[in-house]
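Homework help thread (please don't just give me the answer)

Our assignment gives two proteins as sequence + structure token strings and asks us to describe the second one. The first is just a warm-up. Here they are:
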Amino acid sequence: MLAASDRQIWERALKDHATIITKDGDFAGLQKSGAGQVAVIWLRIGNTAKEPLVRWLMPLMPEIAAALEAGDMLVEIRP
């Protein structure tokens, strides 16, 4: 879905019951607007290469999973 619009990605996540992990604030806006029940993990980190991003994110996964299991639909992660 590399060429898909935010709305197309959102609709696909709705259909597939998927969680969106993103650095794009537009998805947080869609979640707050009530556009449907899609969980969004919003990474509030600046530009970074994939490898450092993954190294930063992986230790946070238990905290993220706990928030999702508790019913949070928008999880903001900041450095």
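The one we have to describe:
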Amino acid sequence: MLPAFFPRVLYALLLRCLDVTYGPRLFTVADLASVSPAMGRSLERMLEYEGGDLAELFTLDWPRGDELTAENRQEHVRDYLQWFFSDRYASQLQPLSDGFRAVVGQSKLLQAGLVDAMQLEQIICGVEHPVDAKVLRAGASVKDWLPSDEAYLNYFWEVLQGLLPEDLRRFIVFVSACGRTPPRGWQDLNITIQRNGDGDHRLPTAFTCFNLFFLPRYSSKEVLHERLLLAISETEGFGLR
């Protein structure tokens, strides 16, 4: 999954490039506000303004900016929004749209128009749900551990289930670089817990591309808890905070 960095309107634009009918095609002031809150507020004030100097006070930087009048402002803003999300950034959006179409353009689910922008975002970025460590465990696997390590792995899951919600979210980001649940549930995150040697001086590490969590074997449950909190609190994704 990808981190939820982008405004939802981007997913509407990506669906639009597939030329499928999935819902309203006209963009709104709310869409613009999700990209630029200041511009969104400016357009809202323009639509509400009652003064006679509207055309002088509010100017939009686009090819038809000089056509604004008090009488046509509703249509003017509507057309401006369509221009903003199409022509203005066409050169930047086109390569992204081409790549999106090349990867998922043959999806029958998308071609049938059964997915809207919100659902596409959820498929790509997951859903905002509290982390459930028990469900997470149900979909997890282990690697390079011995049968005699079963009790230690139980300690790990006990520690994880005892974390505060915000620390549990940090663990998910640490392992996957994304704090959202997969669309079908936390079990689909499919974390792999791999043994990574022994030693209390070591910290857990992760390969976020593969949801692969490297866990050393520590001398006690208390050390495991301390080292886990230290690792997830001081790093996030690929970089140090």
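TA reply:
I won't write it for you, but here's a hint about the kind of observation we're looking for: Residues 8-125 form one domain.
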